[in-house]
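Shipment paperwork, digital attachment
Item: protein structure file
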Amino acid sequence: MIEIQGWKWPEYPLFLAPMAGITDWAFRLLCQEQGCDAATTEMISAQGFLTARKHNNTYQLLARRAPFEKPLLVQLFGCDPNWMGEAARVLSSCGRYAGIDINMGCPARKVTGSGSGSRLMLDEKLAGRVIAACVRGSLLPVSVKMRLGWDEEHENAPAIARIAEQEGAAFLTVHGRTTKQQYAGKADYEKIAAVRRAVRIPVIANGDIADGAGAREALRVTGCAGLAIGRAALGDPWVFARVRAGLSGKSCDMPDLHERLATARRHATYMRAGHNERTALLEMRKFFAWYIRGVYGAAEIRAKITTAGSFAEVEKLLTELEAKNGA
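Attachment content:
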């Protein structure tokens, strides 16, 4: 059992990795119902959060935590230690979260172009100052999510990990790819293991974990304290149940179409509770597409969902898909 400032981890905790435009409170709840132990918000710009007008709806939604959620980390991105430290102070004092997570893993150009996300790994001194500022400002544990490095010539994750430990980070999450790789190829668990060996604080392995067998292999090779699951959960929050069962030596069946669509409908209900009707519909389109992936007739229904003008239209399409598959 690992305990960090009163936060007790189960053996091999399963984290929902942060994904922009995905891991809002509605999606997190569905994953937590299936065995996700802790989650992280979508990334929040430290400077944007601090300079936004009071009650700015965008940041209110990004920072929202449902009252019955499991432990939730709030993820900040930025490359200015002052902004990052102050945002960590403000957010850690509001009583919603279990920790502050620093984004040093996002490979998106709109983030790395400003020197943030995984780009920050290229400046080890600045990275250290950012981590130190967050640790000083935060009332909660501070973690860092990173990649292996920028590219093959700059795979400095072990060095960043040591800096993070020295500056007071409580734990790390490492995605087993470089920024240049984006999401291509396979996550390199041997290189995550090298990061784990470089520090004494817990390390969470991230990348290509989609079932019990994959989870066992990731833990075996990396020796990490837990796992973070990201893209495998898209349209499949049940991945957490399968992984947890697999780690316990048990099996867990995939949900049938009826359960998948029932969850998609409930997801839509959650989404509508937090957005106006139009925004909720636009946000749900990608989720509906993921929920029906691989189902007979899904391609035609998916194309129609992308142009549907109301949830009533979407419901007719889902009912049509059920009829095609005898669900």
